[in-house]
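Translate sequence into structure tokens.
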Amino acid sequence: MSTSSHSNDSSNSNVVDLFSGGTFIPEEKQRIIRISPEYDGLSMLYSNNRASPDKLYSMNILCWALRSDGDVVAMVPWLNKVVPCTALDDPCDGRWEGYYDKVSSDIFYEPPIHKVLELETAVNYFKVDDSPADQIIQEIPDTIGTHAMLNSDEQQCLLLTEVISWRLLGDGSIQAMLVDPDKVLSTPILAGDCSLYPASENAEFRYFFQHHVANQIKSADPEAIAAISHLLEPQ
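Result follows.
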């Protein structure tokens, strides 16, 4: 969905991305410039032919993001990074099928207008388009129970640790922030705490999981353990 305050440039509309087959969009135009947490429990619907071709699965949306080209997209932690829901297009590993409101049971395909207006208003107020690549633009709390899985090859063990917050940088990247226990000075640990560090800086980081999957892993659920073993198999 395109918002009104950022004009779309159609100069590349005839250029095709050879990898995706879709219209080529310069990376700068897809840069995320503002995010807003999803507080009302809206979720993404996706299909997975590998697991079950006749079922739809739901996954809680982490946040809504405004791109520099004016598009608003929902973001979810997927495998080892945060991705736009609409970018999931693999029938075997996950394909986006729409958004879902659990309260009303409505299925929809465009960002909610209240989120679009919120993001537009915020980015027009804060005016951060020319921020340095490593500048922290925002840091929002994790509201969906995301866990990061750390895998120590030396100790041959798995560690699940909570993601405390998500940090948006000037280059449009979104970092998951984890707790370094050796740097904790006080509790509770909130977004912006000095003990937090990006998951990407931990060499043992492997994947993200939402809380219900993390709980299955913690309880040694056989199906969850089998799925983890598959993910960790050498490619």
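Note: Helices lie at 113-126, 211-218, 222-231.
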